[in-house]
Design brief:
The protein is an alpha+beta fold. It contains 19 helices and 12 strands.
Length: 470
């Protein structure tokens, strides 16, 4: 049986007239279809429907742009971002033009405090603009870093700064991103940064009653501590070990055991209690400028610089050498020059023997020498610039002591320590609010405590453990 090949040629039209008519009908239908599609997006007369204040308005593309500009000039940032988005939908823009509008949208979102939305627009703008505007690209990079900081993503911020400082790096980023593997699981730099940010946030939220500015300062401080490469590596190792142990625990079905469920329940109570207390204290423990000044006035002695003395020393190898040095100074030689040329203490030799830490008014400790009540009292009782007539021994050797100056107890002006006083005021207010709130809840829930019952139980336990004599 012979298999026929398929016929692939186009059938011939029978008449030229019918072919011409078919082409005209096809073009006409195509035009109608395009018009119908455009009518879905564009309103009559070039107008575009947008929602303003809950009402639909018909505006031209130029009207939308002008309205967005006016709102932007008046710092009505969130509404301006919305109108610029409407403008993007309505206007026909090329990539660079859209990039410029994305930048404006991002800037308005940032000004209205929406750092996450702003960051997304800046990323799109940077991609669309490419290398067309280097100055604007630098500005977008700066604003991206600000957004990451405002979102508290300090780990991502550090990585972005590092990447931007090495724009010509040839490192394979896909390989660089994997920082650890656990079997088939991969932990990327982004995963690590996210876990790091979560840890920092937990540490910040563990201290209730702080202002947003104080929380931000603490975030930056914690992040700075974790910028050290060794600490980051140790943190990564701890994260991996925790995950491995957790996976093994699940494999052994420890999470199904009654003991685990009891511990989990207890932890849940603790987390719930801490979360509630934190939220309530944050809402109630507000502190005004007047509160801070009142706290300062009520606790002035707390902010006084304590009385103290400052000393210099010449460290000698033995008592005989120390006594000869004292004689030379009494004979007119300079304490400073002998300290600089002959003292065995390399840390103070170039500072003319001066010890930076003060000798406190109370106690028996002398910085650089150790505990010595006799020496401490001699320093406090000596005149400023006086060289003590006796040398004093320590584990380092023998010391010739000069009392450089005495500092009397001195009140610090409020203006110089306002930040410290505010932190102390906030801490005191948070403690006060916590106690008040707990008292309210105990009253509401009818809490009653019977501590004497514990004493009675302890006495009974002690009797039970006492051996009985036959």
């Amino acid at each position: 049986m012979t298999v026929q090949s398929p016929k692939l040629e186009v059938p011939e039209t029978r008449t030229r007239e019918r072919s011409g008519m078919s082409g005209f009908v096809f073009v006409l239908l195509l035009v109608v279809l395009v018009v119908q599609i455009l009518s879905l997006f564009v309103s009559p007369s070039g107008q575009h429907a947008i929602n303003i204040g809950g009402h639909t308005q018909q505006l031209s593309v130029e009207d939308i742009r002008n309205a967005a500009l006016e709102l932007e000039r008046k710092n009505v940032s969130e509404e301006a971002a919305g109108l610029w988005s409407e403008y993007l939908d309505a206007a026909r823009l090329n990539g660079v033009e859209e990039g410029n509008i994305r930048y404006r949208i991002g800037k308005n979102w940032q000004n209205s405090g929406k750092a996450d939305r702003a960051y997304a627009q800046f990323v799109l703008a940077e991609i669309l603009l490419g290398d067309s505007n280097p100055e604007l690209k630098d500005e977008i990079g700066r604003r991206r870093r600000e957004c990451l900081r405002d979102m508290g993503n300090f780990a991502d911020l550090a990585r972005e700064i590092a990447e931007q400082s090495q724009p010509d790096s040839t490192v394979d980023l896909e390989k660089e991103q994997v920082v650890a593997e656990i079997g088939s699981q991969k932990i990327t730099v982004a995963d690590f940064n996210r876990m790091l940010t979560d840890q920092i946030e937990l540490a910040v939220k563990a201290r209730p009653g702080m202002s947003q500015e104080e929380e931000q300062i603490n975030r930056e401080r914690y992040h700075k501590q974790l910028t050290d490469p060794q600490r980051r590596e140790q943190t990564l190792q701890n994260m991996v070990v925790t995950r491995v142990l957790a996976e093994e625990a699940r494999k052994q079905e420890i999470h199904r055991s009654p003991e685990f469920r009891e511990r989990l329940s207890a932890m849940a109570d603790s987390v719930l209690a801490q979360t509630l207390l934190f939220d309530e204290v944050s809402k109630r423990a507000t502190v005004t400028d007047e509160d801070v000044k009142r706290f300062y006035e009520a606790n002035k002695s707390r902010y006084e610089q304590p009385a103290a003395s400052f000393i210099g020393h010449i460290l000698c190898a033995d008592e005989a050498t120390a006594r000869k040095v004292i004689q030379r100074i009494q004979g007119g030689e300079s304490f400073d020059s002998i300290a600089k040329s002959e003292s065995r203490d390399a840390g103070t030799r170039d500072k003319f023997g001066i010890i930076a830490d003060p000798v406190a008014e109370d106690g028996d400790y002398v910085p650089g020498i150790g505990k010595n009540k006799t020496l401490h009292d001699a320093i406090r009782n000596a005149e400023a610039s006086e060289v003590l007539p006796e040398p004093y021994e320590s584990a380092k050797g023998w010391h010739v002591i000069k009392v450089v100056s005495h500092q009397t107890r001195l009140a610090q002006p409020f203006e110089e320590i306002a930040d410290e006083v505010r932190r102390d005021t906030q801490a005191a207010r948070s403690l006060e609010v916590s106690q008040q709130y707990l008292a309210e809840l105990q009253t509401e829930y009818g809490v009653k405590l019977y501590p004497t019952a514990l004493d009675a139980a302890s006495e009974q336990d002690a009797k039970d453990e006492t051996p009985q004599t036959p």
